[in-house]
Amino acid sequence: MSKLNTIREAIDAIAAGKFVVVVDDEDRENEGDLIIAADSVTAEDMAFMVKYTSGVVCCAITNERAMLFTYHLWLQTIPKPWEQLSQFL
């Protein structure tokens, strides 16, 4: 297994506009999430994320911001128990 970086190193990398991969436990989903600060992302970064990941790109926004786009939450179409899921536009 390769060395995992510290949380401080990950925060510094994000602050510098770099990608980090955040991994969960092998006993959970055993997956990684590619993370970059939204205010530093470029078109090339987006292309990389779409090409080399599942292609699903997420961005945390407020409900007020979401309403500006007049999108409906995917969550409304998912049967319960959806309380545990993330809300997707």
Describe this structure in words.
The chain is built from three helices and two strands. The protein has a two-stranded antiparallel sheet with strand order 1-2. It has two domains: 1-58, no CATH class; 62-89, no CATH class. It is α+β, with helices and mostly antiparallel strands. The longest helix has 10 residues, at 43-52. The mean pLDDT is 82. Strand 1 (20-23) and strand 2 form a beta hairpin.
| Mean of residue pLDDT values | 82
Structurally, how many domains make up the residues? Answer: 2
**Count of individual helical segments:** 3
Q: Based on helices, strands and strand pairing, what is the structural class?
A: alpha+beta
Order of helices and strands: HEEHH
Measured on Cα atoms, how large is the radius of gyration?
15 Å
Largest sheet: 2 strands, antiparallel
The gross shape turns out to be globular
Please estimate the helix content. 25-40%
The strand count comes to 2
Low-confidence stretches at least 5 residues in length (pLDDT < 50)? none
Give the N-terminus to C-terminus distance in angstroms: 36 Å
Strand order of the largest sheet: 1-2
Query: How much strand?
Result: 5-15%
Task: Map the helices and strands.
Blueprint: H1 7-15, E1 20-23, E2 32-35, H2 43-52, H3 63-68
Brief account:
The chain is built from 3 helices and 2 strands, in the order αββαα. The protein has 89 residues and is of the alpha+beta class. The protein has a two-stranded antiparallel sheet.
Keywords for this entry:
3 helices, 89 residues, 28% helix, 2 strands
